[in-house]
TrEMBL record:
GO terms for cellular component: cytosol. This is Translation initiation factor IF-2. The keyword GTP-binding applies. It comes from the Bacteria. It comes from Paracoccus jeotgali. GO terms for molecular function: GTP binding; GTPase activity; translation initiation factor activity. The chain holds residues 330 to 626 of 845 of the full protein.
């Protein structure tokens, strides 16, 4: 029932990369996400207000659009992957220039390698007097991450989330990496996406932030998402504006769900409400059986 037809070559268009920031605690993931968000908000003026919906888009100076997952840390990355949602094209590994490779840095390197996702290293806190970016590069080599300066193919960018130094360069490095990946999607097909956040809102009912991975999600579309289904009542973008549709790599809040899905659930647009209900019920029953079997064991 769910449309799994392969996209025709001529329907494929370039899409923005989806980026996850990872790294050791206190190396500056949150600060960097905040700085990037402020730097440059797509369609709004620089410094425009963004809503926290779990992801946001920015425009690099070159005009390239980039989509960032706004949830730092590794739990989100691994739990999404465990649920089958591979929503990351590029990992930005943050390493503090006044520290070095730490246990969670190694963990992030391993996650990126396991997922076969290319990495860009942001050497952060370059404003600090104790900053020693060269030590970071040598340290990385010990963990089989060979940076460009040492003959490898991993880009490093020296940045400061505090002063803003190097942020534009980082965005361009990501845009370059993205070009190499030749990321495409078919905006013409029914949407498929992944839930990156979901909650039950007192005023609005169940709300899910969906990152569209292929196709275009439109107001009025009927969909299944995990064990839930719904009909898109409203779409709200990362600026808090209502929009009529969201194409590939665009994060949007979706209203009109009959229940609250889980992060990592996959959303698929289907043709009729009957289909949507049937698939959701089937999945719900399958999940119940599984829980019962696990309980009996
Ligand atoms: P996270 O745990 O990786 O998300 O790290 P945070 O973003 O919370 O940053 C940890 C600490 O480092 C905070 O006190 C930040 O203010 C500080 N910090 C982050 N980036 C920079 C930077 O570029 N320069 C300096 N000097 N401090 C920074």
């Amino acid at each position: 029932v769910i449309d799994t037809v392969e996209d025709k070559e001529e329907d494929l268009q370039a899409r923005p990369p989806i980026i996850t920031i990872m790294g050791h605690v206190d190396h500056g993931k949150t600060s960097l996400l905040d700085r990037i968000r402020q730097a440059n908000v797509v369609s709004g003026e620089a410094g425009g207000i963004t809503q926290h919906i779990g992801a946001y888009q920015v425009k690099a100076e070159s005009g390239a659009v980039l989509s960032f997952l706004d949830t730092p840390g590794h739990a989100a990355f691994t739990s999404m992957r465990a649920r089958g949602a591979n929503v990351t094209d590029i990992v930005v590994l943050v390493v503090a220039a006044d520290d070095a490779v730490m246990p969670q840095t190694v963990e992030a390197i391993n996650h990126a390698k396991a997922a076969d996702v290319p990495m860009i290293v942001a050497i952060n806190k370059i404003d600090k007097p104790a900053a020693n970016p060269q030590k970071v590069r040598t340290d990385l080599l010990q963990h089989e991450v060979v940076v460009e300066e040492m003959g490898g193919d991993v880009q490093t960018v020296e940045v400061s989330a505090h002063t803003g130094q190097g942020i534009d360069t980082l965005l361009e490095a990501i845009a370059l990496q993205s070009e190499i990946l030749e990321l495409t999607a078919n905006p013409k097909r029914p949407a498929q996406g992944a839930v990156i956040e979901a909650k039950l809102d007192v005023g609005r009912g169940p709300v899910a932030t969906v990152l569209v991975q292929n196709g275009t999600l439109k107001r009025g579309d009927i969909f299944v998402v995990g064990e839930q289904w719904g009909k898109v009542r409203a779409l709200i973008n990362d600026k808090g504006d209502r929009v009529d549709e969201a194409g590939p790599s665009v994060p949007v809040e979706v209203l009109g769900l009959n229940g609250t899905p889980e992060a990592g659930d996959v959303l698929n647009v289907v043709e009729t409400e009957a289909q949507a209900r049937e698939i959701a019920e089937y999945r719900e029953n399958a999940a119940k059986d599984k829980r019962a079997a696990a309980g009996a064991a």
